[in-house]
């Protein structure tokens, strides 16, 4: 199969995943009383059903737990460094929202967990995250570890590597999650949310924490 056909098929599947994810993420009210005035996203089972404990490898090679990662409000994204367009754009948007919040005196961080652990070594993750923010954290791990953490955030992904084990696309959902200290997921943001609006909504949660 040609690279062009692979890219077209990958884009179609990814679009279907994004549509399905968008529908799924608006089925029911999340209903967290602590942040009711801030929450805009609705999700089946409530936002409390998202997240899991984990131990992964940080982009500096250190093994870290969820408790060690989520020490401040965090914008969590699942993607991969070989992604041709979506992941770089989403990472840039998240980094811009981080900058806007820090200019307001709000301490936040951005995190990307790979959906392509075979190619995304800690060194590769660091090269990628440094393109967007020197404070962005990249996390990788074994196939089993990555599968478990994606399951915890109900994130679909699939590598299209049946015919080529080196150059392939990975279908994945593209939501960004707001995770508070204590590994508490309270909100999600779709790809259509601009950085200014993301910063405003995240700022609401941070203000409500204080």
Automatic annotation (TrEMBL):
Transmembrane segments: none annotated. InterPro entries: SCO1/SenC (IPR003782), Thioredoxin-like_sf (IPR036249). Signal peptide: none annotated. It comes from the Bacteria. Belongs to the SCO1/2 family. PANTHER family: ELECTRON TRANSPORT PROTIN SCO1/SENC FAMILY MEMBER, LINALOOL DEHYDRATASE_ISOMERASE DOMAIN-CONTAINING PROTEIN. This is SCO family protein.
């Amino acid at each position: 199969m040609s690279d062009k056909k692979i890219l077209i098929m990958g884009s179609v599947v990814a679009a279907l995943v994004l549509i399905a994810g968008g529908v799924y993420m608006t089925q029911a009210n999340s209903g967290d009383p602590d942040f009711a005035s801030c929450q805009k996203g609705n999700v089946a089972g409530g936002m409390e059903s998202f997240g899991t404990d984990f131990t992964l490898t940080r982009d500096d090679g250190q093994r870290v737990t969820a408790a060690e990662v989520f020490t401040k409000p965090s914008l969590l994204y699942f993607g991969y460094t070989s992604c041709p367009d979506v992941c770089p754009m989403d990472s840039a948007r998240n980094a811009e929202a981080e900058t806007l919040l820090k200019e307001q005196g709000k301490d936040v961080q951005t995190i990307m967990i790979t959906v392509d652990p075979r190619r995304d070594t800690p060194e590769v993750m660091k090269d990628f995250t440094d393109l967007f923010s020197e404070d962005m954290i990249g996390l990788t791990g074994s196939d089993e570890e990555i599968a478990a953490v994606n399951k915890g955030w109900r994130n679909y992904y699939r590598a299209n590597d049946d015919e080529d084990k080196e150059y392939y696309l990975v279908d994945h959902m593209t939501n960004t999650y707001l995770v508070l200290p204590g590994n508490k997921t309270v909100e999600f943001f779709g790809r259509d949310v601009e950085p200014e609006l993301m910063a405003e909504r995240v700022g609401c949660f941070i203000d409500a924490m204080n």
